[in-house]
Each structure stands twice: as C-alpha cells, then as structure tokens.
Amino acid sequence: MKKYFGTDGIRGTANQFPITAQIALKIGMAVGAKLKDGTHRHRVVIGKDTRLSGYMIENALTAGLISVGIDVFLVGPLPTPAIAMLIKSLRADMGIMISASHNPHHDNGIKIFKKSGHKLDDKTECEIEKIIDGDLNQFLSPANEIGTASRIKEAKDRYLEFVKNTFPKHKSLEGLTIVIDAANGAAYNIASKVMWELGANVIAIGNNPNGSNINEQCGSTSPETLQKRVLEENADIGIALDGDADRVLICDENSKIIDGDILIGLIANKLHLEGSLKKDTVVATQMSNLSLEKYLRYNGISLVRCDIGDRYVVKKIQELKCNFGGEQSGHIILSEHSTTGDGLVSALQILNIMIDDKRKLSEISNIFQLSPQILKNVRFNKNNNPLNNTEFQNIIQNEEKIIAGKGRILVRKSGTENLIRIMVEGEDEKVIIKIADRIAKHIEI
Fold first, then answer.
1. DSSP string over 265-321
2. Is the entire prediction scored with pTM above 0.85?
3. 101 is an active site residue
4. Residue 129 phi, psi dihedral angles, 5° rounding
5. Which domains does the chain have, with CATH numbers?
6. Tell me, what's the pLDDT at 188?
7. Which residues of the chain have pLDDT under 50?
8. From 99, 101, 192, 346, active-site residue
9. What is the pLDDT of residue 445?
C-alpha cells in the first residue's frame, strides 16, 4: 500500500497531506536521489497548470532537487504532454508536472515522468516513497555541487510547433469554425493558437485563468458553456480540454457530446485504413463500451483491454508493440507522437478525419450506438473491503453467469476513496440495473 502515490501520481488538497510545501521539498530530494545514475549533471523539467498553489509546490520541488545536485528547468504553465515531450527536447533526465488534472482549483498534484517520457511504474514509486521517509540528509550535495534553476522561455513555442507537426503538412483547417475551451488551465495560451495557425476560424473560451477558476464551469468536466457557444457561433466542432490538457472532450455542430469510445473508434479506423495502425490492435481499459469492441472487430481491428488509467494503456501499448489506445474519458494515446495522452493532438486527429470525409461531424461520428452501461459507487467500511470476501466474490460470479455472452461486470475498489465501483454493461438496461443493485446491497457501509 503506497503512502503518497495514487493512481496518477501524488494528488490531494493543497496545503494538506500530501500536497504541502514540506512534503514537496522531500519529494524533490527523493526524486533527485533516485534519479542520479552517473556523474553527469542531471536535469529535470518542471511544468505546472494555472492553480495558485502551483507556485508553492514548484518552489518547494525546485529547492529539494537543487539541494541534491539536480539542475532544474522551469517552463511555467504548459500541458502535461508538453512536459513529456520537453524531456527529450531539452535532453533532461526526468520531468515533473504540477497539476490535479480535471480536479477543482483547491486540489493539486505531482506527476513524474521518466527520461523516456513515460510515467513511473509502481515499483519506482514505492522506491521513491522509501527515500522520502528515510534519511534525506545523506543525499545533500556539497556546496560547490548544488544544482541550478533556470526558466526556459521558448518551451511553449517548442510544444506548439510539436503539436502542429502532428497534423498533415499538406492540409489546412481553413473553412472550419472551432470553439475551443482550455478550461482556464495549462493550455490557455496555446490551444486556440494551434488551431488558428493551422487555418481555422477560432472562438476561444476558458482562456483567462486567475489561479482559482481552472475547471470551474468550463473545460471537459463542464461542457455546457462549450455546447451553448457552438450553437451560437454555428461552429463545426467544439473542443474542450481538462486542466492539464491531457484529455479531450468533443461535441458536434449540434452540440451533442461525442463519447470517448466513439472518438477512439473513429481514429482507430482511420489509422487502420491508412495502414498505420500497428498490428491492427487498439488498447482500451475495462471501462470501454462493448459496442466499441464490436465495431472494431467488424472493421478487422482487435481490442485488448487493460487496467483503468492512462499509464496502464501506455504500458500495454508498449508490451504489445502497437501504437494506439485510450480511455473513454478522453485520454487518447497516439504513441507515434506522444508518450502520454494529449488533448490537442487527439483533437487534430478528429479534425483530420473531418477534412478527409467532407461531412458534418454528427454524420461522421454516427458509427455505433453505445450499449447500456450502469455505474454505481458504494461506500464501504475501510476495515472490511468486500473484495477480500469469498462470499462477495461468489455473488459477483453468479451475476456474471446471468449476463454471460450478453454483457460484462466490473467490480473494483477506487484508487483514492473507500468506494467500491460497480460497472454493469449489457443489452437490456433493466436487467443490468437489477444486477448492479443486487451486487451493491451486499456491500457493508
């Protein structure tokens, strides 16, 4: 059981455990100590989103890293995928993103990336935790070997050009009207610029951060403003990012939200037809809809499922040596371009499909109907995890027999709360509701 790291880095309420300046200082020292594997000057890139607490965490992490002899490159507010990209661009040894992604402004977090641009594995996180709680003074550098800190002003432009280069050079977005919502987050001064420089008519919203309005009635978690504006502007598409811009939400010209599984299906089939979908395989999580699996199979594409979380999608992509996968939440991984989810790169993939197809997005995205899916979250006694109970497991197995061949059941513990998450999917909504209810009533509160 990890003490600091959760399902996606370290996350919590700012100025409360574990997101305090004191702990961030220790994290910086521990990461630096773990990082050193030679005599060269080690370098770490640190980025952040627009939360007020980012200044506190950034300075504490920097102090910790410098104290153990690590040089720090500060790039300011930039999307999470930009940090993964800049590790290679700046020949750094590691990257750190300060963000709580789609969470409210009072939360914050620390995501750590290896030299390869991939997130840390569980084993490395456990090793860092041991260092945090050990004797950190042993890693302090002599006065003449203390690290340095510098701000990289051109980092934003490097990332902007990287994103544009993922779009076919012979194509343009000219003639398209795009509403793009940057969630008052990390992509606030990049998202609309990318689309405009590629030729689109752009209406930008959610691009005025003040330190406390990130994800506040905007972005991928609150798309109502985007949907309304798409209709008002008679736009061709609405694009919403989350706070750190590693996921995307898209709505069509009628303001209808397009499910993440449909986005995965559209991009997968496009890559397949172009002959660029490696092994004709897509990686998705256990949460992806059965209809996606059927659609891909019909088009000659295999779907491989993995644990929930974008880093597990990336891990499975690496294992299978394929190049595409994603989550229905809008984390879409195009490993030819990025080592993590990138909302802007994913949006450009959909825009590329629109340009080639020459139809409205509402028509293009009508590729399958989602199977009914019920989600229930049930709180349980923290001292009595029902998933450790044989009787409860037997109940789940009996329900699986009822739905066999016509649906799926997924019961798991939340990675951050004392909740059991129940997902039941099938052809008949009334049947799956009853199954979910029967499972839920056996959980002790």
1. HHHHHHHHHHT-SGGGEEEEETTS-HHHHHHHHHTT-EEEEE-SSHHHHHHHHHHHT
2. yes
3. yes
4. -60, -40
5. 10-153 (3.40.120.10), 159-257 (3.40.120.10), 260-364 (3.40.120.10), 373-440 (3.30.310.50)
6. 98
7. none
8. 101
9. 58
